[in-house]
Write a structure and sequence with these properties.
homodimer; about 350 residues; alpha/beta; Rossmann fold; 2 domains; 6-stranded mixed sheet; 12 strands; about 40% helix; DNA-binding; LacI/GalR-like_sensor (chains A, B); DNA-binding transcription factor activity (chains A, B); Lambda_DNA-bd_dom_sf (chains A, B); DNA-binding (chains A, B); transcription (chains A, B)
Chain lengths: ~350, ~350
DNA sequence: CACTGCATCCAAAGCGCTTTGGAGTGATTC
DNA sequence: GAATCACTCCAAAGCGCTTTGGATGCAGTG
């Protein structure tokens, strides 16, 4: 069932049927209802490709996920972010397109996306420090919103981010106020912008309290469980081990907890953990009393907002870049306690 | 840069340029190389929508993720599955399209997808017992591959699945051979086909060994960490608590482990855990020695295979349905030991 | 009554590509 | 020397939609 068939069935021109369906004024209300009724009954759906060709709009948003060769893993927060974004797209009638792009040929990939015209805009995932994609996309002229920011990029661009620096400063400060002096940081990969900012926040808190920054207490890796376990195990073996750990991911925190248990130590009493918590749906941080004291910010919410930001950017093309900084809340759970004496 | 401009630049017809680019024989090799060179230099990419309109193929695959209202969470294995599928698509030049579909209006959603013509085929996620989508899609005539199977559906359809029943029978048998008699099952939601099969496998092993099936030892919920924790905590409070637990997800197993620790018990010595392990990239089950004894099958691999299955189904339309049953391997880790006496 | 203006409708062009049905050329065959 | 053939190339139609630029009919106006 296509437009032509539908219009023949209705004894109307394609023009009129098209206008009736798309809500244009130059069509009699009676005919419009007649058209809508027939379209519904005959289960007519306009062909997306044809519509896109004619209008120049794709009614789709692209999500580009960089996949590096060394660590080709999909970030665990990705699923929740997508779920959030998907809600917004569904409401607006947009499709969601995923591309996994090897990070060595990103430039080509974005050119491709643009030239092939499959999407009206894209969400940029996993920005790194001084991310070249931002200049690239600005040049290409394809609307985009970055999930996160990119330090050292001086262009104006749209982004939605969590206040990573503020959150980690606050979390570290919280531990310091509990009397901790040896505080470790299990960070994500620090060429990633979010991780870089988190370290800055951590360092700021230490400096504000005249505590020294010890490179032996700082790790930076892909945020897996096993990483949390290994790093914690190693550090607990130090002569002067940390009494508290700041984690960049709840998964890493789980690994850290495992190492603490295995060492025969007790969480909160012997070693405290504070972690960033993306509020992943399948890794809920406890219920009434959180398992981990955490800096929480829902990545699903961020996805929803990012999508809406992009859609509004697309609908009003010459709009100035939009930005949005989300604050993470500090929630007290059962993984922190005063420093052991 | 479109075909017309490119052909004018080359002083050739669009026909010839198109043929040169698409590898048709009726074009001189010299002109072909000339065309390819120019296309490369001028960064020409055919417009996907136009190409799709002309060929009737979308060069895209749809992934439909059911989102129920009660538990609107994205399955954590989804990210890895997608990553695997994405690899196959990228190689074949296909795009990947995601749709989140509320499960009450699935029928419409699939009709929509078909009529709008945005994809050439779809991957069906999260099949339930007697899943109506299979009949629906067969009727619609859109190629599809199911990730999993659907018990009670008598149509022939393409699927890729893990031998869930066999895996859980084997895992349970393994525990029985270690001397365990009180074995709990922390399953996923049992209207989901995979969970239903897993329970069957678990029950079969018990029956084969003349052990009774105790409903108090069987739980069925969304496979979160907190679920594993709560269920385990509750069961450890029984007069006759389980000495071993079979988990449907490593995340749930982590929750179970937390409850075991909290009860002052030791994993493997006091309580054993065996879990299904989808080999998620960010939840690696240890390294040389796995944390959990597990039934392992890479969901990422499944994604890659599912995608290839679908692509071959599309390229040879009248192909008979393909099926593929993956076996999970039993890997021995540090979470199981002989039953305490 | 001729004219204007509004409300409805339509034919046809165009979006960027593929593909059908030739057309032109030179070489080969008898 | 005419006929045949393989090799290259092209013009134009068509995919299913939107949108421009009218055409038509009818009420209102002076």
């Amino acid at each position: 069932m296509n437009l032509k068939q539908l219009s023949e069935y209705l004894n109307l021109s394609q023009t009129t049927v098209s206008r009736a369906l798309n809500g244009y004024p130059e069509v009699n209300e009676d005919t419009r209802t007649r058209v809508l009724k027939a379209a519904h009954e005959l289960n007519y759906r306009p062909n997306t490709r044809a519509k896109g060709l004619a209008t120049g709009r794709a009614l789709a948003i692209g999500h580009v996920i960089p996949v590096s060769n060394q660590h080709e893993m999909v970030n665990p927060v990705f699923g929740d972010f997508i779920a959030g974004a998907g809600e917004s797209y569904a409401k607006a009638g947009y499709d969601m397109m995923l591309s996994l792009v090897a990070d060595q040929d990103e430039a080509r990939a974005y050119q491709d996306i643009r030239a092939r015209g499959t999407v009206d805009g894209i969400i940029v995932h996993g920005p790194v420090i001084n991310d070249v994609r931002i200049a690239l996309l600005s040049g290409i002229g394809l609307p985009f919103v970055v999930h996160g920011r990119s330090t050292d990029v001086n262009l104006a661009y749209s982004w939605i981010d969590v206040n990573n620096r503020g959150a980690f400063e606050r979390g570290t400060q919280f531990l310091i106020e509990l009397g901790h002096r040896r505080i470790a940081l299990l960070n994500g990969l620090e060429h990633m912008d979010f991780a870089f900012r988190r370290r800055k926040g951590y360092e700021t808190a230490l400096q504000n309290n005249a505590l020294s920054i010890d490179p032996d207490l700082m790790r930076s890796e892909e945020m897996t469980e096993i990483y949390g376990y290994r790093a914690t195990k190693a550090m607990l073996g130090y002569e002067d081990p940390p009494t508290a750990i700041v984690c960049s991911s709840i998964i890493t925190a789980i690994g850290a907890r495992r190492a603490i248990h295995e060492a025969g130590l007790t969480l909160a009493r012997d070693v405290s953990i504070i972690t960033f918590d993306d509020a992943l749906s399948y890794l809920e941080n406890g219920d009434d009393v959180p398992i981990f004291t955490a800096l929480r910010s829902s990545v699903r919410y961020a996805g929803r907002e990012a999508a809406e930001m992009l859609l509004s950017l697309i609908s009003v093309p010459m709009n100035a870049p939009k930005t949005r900084l989300l604050e993470a809340e500090l929630i007290i759970g059962r993984s922190t306690g005063p420093a052991p004496t």
